[in-house]
Design brief:
Elements: H1 3-17, H2 27-36, H3 43-54, H4 60-72, E1 76-79, E2 82-85, H5 87-90, H6 98-123, H7 129-143, H8 149-152, H9 165-181, H10 184-202, E3 219-222, H11 224-230, H12 236-251, E4 255-259, H13 260-279, H14 287-294, H15 299-307, H16 309-315, E5 318-321, H17 334-345, H18 350-366, E6 380-384, H19 387-395, E7 409-411, H20 412-423, H21 430-443, H22 447-462, H23 468-475, H24 478-488, H25 497-581, H26 596-615, H27 620-643
Parallel strand pairs: 3-4, 3-6, 4-5, 6-7
Antiparallel strand pairs: 1-2
Helix pairs in contact: 1-6, 1-10, 3-4, 6-7, 6-10, 7-9, 7-21, 9-21, 9-24, 10-20, 10-21, 11-12, 11-13, 12-20, 12-21, 13-14, 13-15, 17-18, 17-19, 22-23, 24-25, 25-26, 25-27
Length: 649
C-alpha cells in the first residue's frame, strides 16, 4: 500500500486534531524526519526525505517555517550554525507518527481489499491490492492533489502517477460505490485520503499563516459547466461541490460572475435538452441532459428553468455581465490564443471555441494586461472544469515574457483548494465531493464508445433481447459505461456484440445486488424504527406509570392526614355519645341536659357503630381505611388534571 495514501490520511487526522492549522498538521512529519536523521538537518534534506518516504511534496518555504516552529518548541536547536535534533524533546509522543500511520494503514488495507473484490465482482478483472492502490493513488492525485499549485507558486509538484485506462475506470467506479453505498468505515478511510490530498495542495498556496483574511477586489467568472452544476442541472453530487465553491468565494469576499455569452451557452444547452426530452431521442451527451433524462424531466420542466434562469443565478449569488469592451492598449494576440486552445481542447464546436476565447480575452482586459503574481491581486479569474482549457490558458504566457503570473483560467479544484485553506470549517464535505466529481468525469469519458454501446443497446431492445426496464436502467448506467471503457480500454474497434452482452450481464448483476442491498438496508431501517418506536412507547408507559405512582403516593398521604383528622373528631363524638348515653347514677341523667335531638343522634351513632361491628365486623380502623382509599382516588384524579393533564386517567 502506498505510503502517500497513509500520509494523506494522517495529515487529515493531524489537521482535525490541531485546530485546523494547515502548517501545524505537518509538524509531526518534519519532526519524524528530523528524528530519523543522523546528520545535520536542512530544509533541503527534510524536503527530500518527505518526498522519498511519503511521496509528499512540500515547498521549501513551508519546511523552513516548520523548522523554526520546532526550534522554538525546543525539539530542534542550532549548534555551530547547523540544525540538530534535541533527543529528549524530539522523541516525545506528540511527534511520533508510527501509531497514527499504523492505524490508518489498517483502515486503508481494508478499503483496498474491498476495491480488489469490487473489481473482480463487477468488472471481472483480477487486480492485486498494490495495483489497486496505485490506481486509487493516481485518481486522488489527478483529481484532488494538484489544486492551486501552479496557479499561485509557478511550480508543479512532481507526484504524478499513471495507470492503465481499465484500472482508472475501476478505481473511479469504486469511489462512486463507496460514496453511495459503502460502509461507514470505508467512507471514513476514503474521506481521510481525499482531505489529506487537498491539504497537500493547500501547502503550495500563499498566506497559510493568515487564512481568514478576506480578498477584496477579486471576481471569479464561472464557465458554463460550473454554472449548470451550481443550478443543480447536472445532479446533486456535482451541485454539492459547486455550491461549496460558491460559498467559499462569497465568504472570502469574492464576487461570482457569469459572462453574458456563457449565459447564452446555458440557454443553448437547455434548449437542446428540451428538444431531446420532447422527441425522445436516444443519442445525446452531456452532464445536464443525461441527468434530466435519468430523472424523468419533461420539456416543460426545462422551459421553466429557461424562463427563470437569471433569477436562479441571482439566488446563488451570481451576477450576469456582458464582456468588457476591447481597449487597444489591453488587447492580446487572440489568434495565438485561439490556436493554443484548439491544440489543447480539440474543439468540435466552433461556437464553444469562440466563447472560450472571448472569456479569456475579457479576463485579460479586466486585468488591464497585467500579470499578477498572486491570486489576491488578479482582479479576475476564469474558473473552468476543463483542464485542457486551463492548460492552454497557462501556455498563453509563453506569448509574452512573464511566465510566472496567475493564469487567466484555473480549474475548479485549484480555486476551491485555495479558498478552502481559508474556510475549511464551512465546507467540510468539499474534499470528498471533489474526489467524487473526478470519479464521475472518468466514468463519463469517451462519448464515441458510449454512442456505439447505445446503438447496440437499441438493437437489442428492438429484437426484445432486453426488457424495457433493463434498457432504461442500462441506458442511464454510469456503471455500464465504466465497464465498457475498462473492457475496451477506450478502443472503439474493441467493442463487439460479446462486449455488449458482457456489460449487460455484469451491470445487471451489480445493479440487482445493489438493489437487494438497498432493500435489505430499508428493511433493517424499518426494523430499527419499529424497535425504537416500541422502546419509546415503553419508556412513555414507564414514565406515565411512575408519575401516576407518584401522584397516588401524594394523594394517599394527603387522604390519610384528612381521614385521621376527621377520625379523631368522630372518635371524640363517639366517646361523648357513650358517656352521655350511659345511665350514670345522677338525677337527672346527663343526657337530659342536652337537646332531645342531639341526645337521640348520639344514641343512634352509638347503636349504629355497635350493630355494624357485631353484624358485618366493621371496625373504626376499617372505616378509616376505606375513607382513605376513596379520598386518595378522588385526590389522585384531581392532581393529574391540575398538574399533568397529558397522563391518561
Amino acid at each position: 500500500m502506498s505510503d502517500y495514501l497513509a500520509a494523506m490520511a494522517v495529515m487529515k487526522v493531524n489537521y482535525d486534531r490541531r485546530g485546523h492549522d494547515v502548517l501545524q498538521m505537518l509538524v509531526p512529519f518534519v519532526a519524524d524526519s528530523a528524528r530519523r536523521s543522523r546528520q545535520a538537518l536542512s530544509d533541503d534534506s527534510i524536503q527530500q526525505d518527505l518526498q522519498t518516504t511519503f511521496g509528499l511534496p512540500v515547498p521549501r518555504t513551508v519546511i523552513k517555517t516548520l523548522l523554526r516552529r520546532l526550534t522554538r518548541a525546543g525539539a530542534l536547536m542550532r549548534e555551530h550554525g547547523v540544525i540538530v535534533a534535541v533527543r529528549p524533546e524530539i522523541d516525545k509522543p506528540e511527534y511520533n507518527l508510527s501509531a497514527d500511520v499504523s492505524r490508518v494503514k489498517s483502515a486503508q488495507a481494508t478499503l483496498l481489499r474491498e476495491g480488489a473484490a469490487f473489481a473482480s465482482r463487477v468488472f471481472n478483472i483480477e487486480v492485486s491490492e498494490p495495483d489497486f492502490s496505485a490506481a486509487l493513488l493516481s485518481l486522488v492525485r489527478d483529481e484532488v492533489a494538484p489544486l492551486a499549485v501552479w496557479a499561485v507558486n509557478r511550480v508543479q509538484p512532481s507526484f504524478h502517477v499513471r495507470v492503465d485506462e481499465g484500472l482508472a475506470h475501476v478505481a473511479a467506479q469504486f469511489v462512486l460505490h463507496v460514496v453511495s453505498e459503502g460502509s461507514a468505515d470505508s467512507q471514513t478511510a476514503l474521506e481521510q485520503i481525499a482531505k489529506g490530498s487537498l491539504l497537500s495542495g493547500v501547502l503550495w498556496s500563499t498566506d497559510l499563516e493568515a487564512p481568514d483574511r478576506r480578498i477584496s477586489g477579486l471576481e471569479i467568472f464561472l464557465d458554463t459547466t460550473l454554472l449548470l452544476r451550481l443550478l443543480g442541472l447536472c445532479g446533486p453530487i456535482r451541485q454539492a461541490f459547486s455550491a461549496e465553491l460558491a460559498q467559499l468565494a462569497i465568504e472570502s469576499g469574492i464576487g461570482l460572475v457569469c459572462f453574458q455569452h456563457n449565459f447564452d451557452e446555458i440557454l443553448g444547452v437547455l434548449a437542446a435538452a428540451s428538444a431531446v426530452l420532447r422527441s425522445g431521442r436516444s443519442k445525446y451527451y452531456g452532464e445536464a441532459v443525461e441527468f434530466m433524462v435519468s430523472e424523468g424531466w419533461t420539456a416543460s420542466d426545462v422551459e421553466e428553468v429557461i424562463s427563470t434562469l437569471e433569477s436562479r443565478l441571482d439566488e446563488r449569488g451570481v451576477s450576469v455581465r456582458r464582456k468588457p469592451d476591447r481597449v487597444a492598449k489591453y488587447n492580446m494576440d487572440e489568434a495565438s490564443l485561439r490556436r493554443l486552445l484548439d491544440e489543447n481542447v480539440r474543439y468540435t464546436n466552433v461556437a464553444a471555441l469562440d466563447a472560450d476565447v472571448d472569456s479569456l480575452a475579457s479576463i485579460f482586459t479586466l486585468r488591464q494586461a497585467r500579470h499578477p503574481r498572486r491570486i489576491e491581486e488578479a482582479k479576475a479569474v476564469f474558473v473552468t472544469t476543463n483542464t485542457n482549457l486551463a492548460t492552454g490558458a497557462r501556455q498563453l504566457y509563453k506569448i509574452g515574457e512573464d511566465l510566472r503570473g496567475v493564469p487567466l483560467s484555473l480549474i475548479e479544484s485549484q480555486i476551491a483548494s485555495y479558498l478552502w485553506a481559508r474556510h475549511s470549517a464551512s465546507a467540510t464535505a468539499l474534499p470528498l465531493n471533489l474526489l467524487t466529481i473526478g470519479a464521475l468525469s472518468i466514468a463519463e469519458s469517451e462519448p464515441k464508445i458510449w454512442f456505439k454501446y447505445v446503438e447496440r443497446l437499441d438493437d437489442l431492445r428492438a429484437r426484445d433481447r432486453v426488457s424495457k426496464q433493463d434498457y432504461v436502467m442500462l441506458r442511464q448506467s454510469l456503471l455500464a459505461r465504466s465497464i465498457i471503457l475498462a473492457t475496451t480500454e477506450n478502443d472503439i474497434d474493441a467493442f463487439t456484440e460479446d462486449t455488449a452482452d458482457f456489460v449487460l450481464r455484469h451491470a445487471l448483476a451489480e445493479h440487482a445486488r445493489a438493489l437487494q442491498a438497498e432493500v435489505s438496508e430499508r428493511q433493517q431501517e424499518l426494523i430499527d424504527s419499529e424497535a425504537r418506536a416500541s422502546k419509546a412507547e415503553a419508556e412513555r408507559d414507564h414514565q406515565a406509570r411512575s408519575q401516576r405512582a407518584a401522584y397516588r403516593a401524594v394523594a394517599e398521604k394527603a387522604a390519610r392526614v384528612v381521614v385521621i383528622l376527621l377520625g379523631s373528631v368522630l372518635a371524640l363524638i363517639v366517646l361523648a355519645s357513650a358517656i352521655l348515653s350511659f345511665p350514670w347514677p345522677v338525677d337527672p341523667p346527663l343526657s337530659a341536659s342536652l337537646p332531645a335531638g342531639a341526645s337521640i343522634a348520639l344514641g343512634v351513632v352509638a347503636v349504629a357503630i355497635g350493630t355494624a361491628s357485631i353484624v358485618v365486623g366493621l371496625t373504626i380502623r376499617g372505616i378509616g381505611q376505606r375513607a382513605i382509599n376513596g379520598l386518595a382516588g378522588w385526590l389522585e384524579v384531581r392532581f393529574r388534571r391540575w398538574f399533568a393533564p397529558t397522563i391518561a386517567e
